[in-house]
Amino acid sequence: MTRQEHLSYFIRLHRTGLTVTLLCALIVLYPLVQDNPYTLGLSNLVAIHVIVVLGLNLFIGYAGQISLGHAAFFGLGAYGSAIGTVTYELSPWPTMFGVAVLVALLALIIGVPTLRLSGHYLAMATLGFNLVVYTVLQQWDEVTGGVSGFYGIPSLAIGNFVFDDEVRFHYLVWAMALLSLLLCLNLVRSGVGRGLAALAGDETAAAALGVNTQISKVKVFVLSAVLASVAGSLYAHCYNYISPASFDIFVSTDLVIMVVIGGMGSIWGSLFGATLITLLPEWIDVFESYKDFVHGGILVLVLMFLPQGFVTGLVDLVKTRQALRRSRHAAS
Hints:
- It comes from Desulfuromonas acetoxidans (strain DSM 684 / 11070).
- The chain crosses the membrane at residues 12-33, 45-64, 71-88, 94-112, 119-137, 143-162, 169-188, 220-243, 255-281, 293-318.
- Helices cover 79% and strands 1% of the residues.
- The protein contains 16 helices and 2 strands.
- It has a two-stranded antiparallel ribbon with strand order 1-2.
- A hairpin with a 2-residue loop joins β1 and β2 (161-162).
- It folds into 2 domains: 1-33; 36-249, no CATH class.
- The protein is mostly helical.
C-alpha cells in the first residue's frame, strides 16, 4: 500500500475518534476566538439543545417511535433543579442528578402503558403529557412561580470554581454535550443499538429475531428523558431564570424538527440540526417573527428533497456519486 492509501485507511478506521478530537479542539479554542458574551450564550444554548436532541434522536431515529412531548422532561429537569436549590436550598449537583433519577422513574411509569401505542396515537399521548406538564408549571404559582417564572437559580460550582460567566459555562455544557455524544455513539454501535435499528426498520421482524420490542422502547424512552432532564437542569443554572414558555409544545416541535433536519438515526446529524434551528433566528432577524412558519417550511423542504435528513441525505448522495464514479472507472 502507498502512503496515501495507508493514510486513507487510517482515516476511515479512526474516523469517529478523529472527528470527536477535532470537535474537542474547536470547543476549546472557540472562546479564545469569540469572546462576545451574547455569542457564547448562543453557543451554550446550542450545546443544551444538542443533549436533548441526541436523546430524542435515539427514540425517534433508532427506536422508530415519535414524541411530541420531550420539552416536558426538559422543563421538569429545569424546574426540579430550580425548586431543589432555591426553595429547599439543596446542593446543585446532587439535585441535578436526583431530579434526573425522578424524571427517569416518571418516564418509566408513563412509558410502560404509553409505548404500547404507535404512530399518531403515541404522538398525541406524548403531546398530551407535554400540555399537562406545561399547565402545571404555569398554574402552580406557589411552587413554580407561574407565568412570572422562577428567579434566583444559583450557578453551578466545583469547589470554589463557580460557572458564573459564559466562558466557564461554555466548557462545562459542551463537556456534558460531548459526554452525551460519546454515550450515544457507543450505544448505537452496541448490540442494544443494533436491536433498536432493527426495531425502527420493522417491529414485527425485530420481535421475530428475539428483540424484546416493548422493553427496548421503554429503555430508550427513559434514557432520552434523562438526557432531557440533565439538559433542563443545565439550562436553569446557566440562565438563572426559567419560565413555562421555554418548555411548551412549540419547543417540543422544534426539538423534533432538529432531529428530522439533522437526520433521523444520525448522531452527528443531531449536532447539525440543533445548531441550525437554534441559530437560524439569530442569523436572519425576520425569522424571529415568523419562526414557526420558517421552521415548518424548512421541515417540508427537507422531507421533500432529503427525506433521510440533511446530513444523512448529503452523506448518502456523496456515497452514491463515489460509487458511480468507481463503477465508471472500472468499466473503462
